[in-house]
Design goal:
The chain is mostly beta strands and 194 residues long. It has four helices and eleven strands; from the N terminus they run H-E-E-E-H-E-E-E-H-E-E-E-E-E-H.
Amino acid sequence: MGAVLSGAQLRMAEEEGRLAFTGTIRGNALLLSLGRDLVRFRRVQGIVDPMSEESVNAGYGTSFDWDTFDLDPGGSALVSAAEHVRVGPGLLGTIGTLSHVARLGLFAHLGSPFIEPGFSGNIALELFNASPNTVRLRQGMPVAKVFLFEFVRSDEVPCGAPFYGNARGHRVDLRSRYFEEFGQPSRGEKDDEV
């Protein structure tokens, strides 16, 4: 992997078509704000099994339109970024929380910080309130940034994971799809193939 792209290099990547971004470039990063899709986690009886679609889906509330949302201490939610981003081949992104909200105890992206080459869509932000206080979220509020790196040898770096982006203007599916990629038939079920 190469060095972080500067603000000037980000703008040049846009001009060259290697990057598309509908938001603001702030310093050397793409600025992400809270978008229209928000999903709360629900408490489920028993456990959540990542291999079971039914079990995974039971842990999510429905996505709804919102203006403000109060995130309780220890609470988490999934929110789509308002900005659409397309990362071309040879580029890799990493997401970080803005220090302004981190100092309130809000993590804007708790896990899976990488954006793979070829991604196109609205990023699902994994919000977590680590503070003892309720934090009011507002749609459009800047919370995260994306730094982009250029691969030194991009022709040798395949994009092996399935693509889970979304078309611009469409609602974002924020739920886990672990069972789709890694799920196997349960014991007792037979494969269709012989």
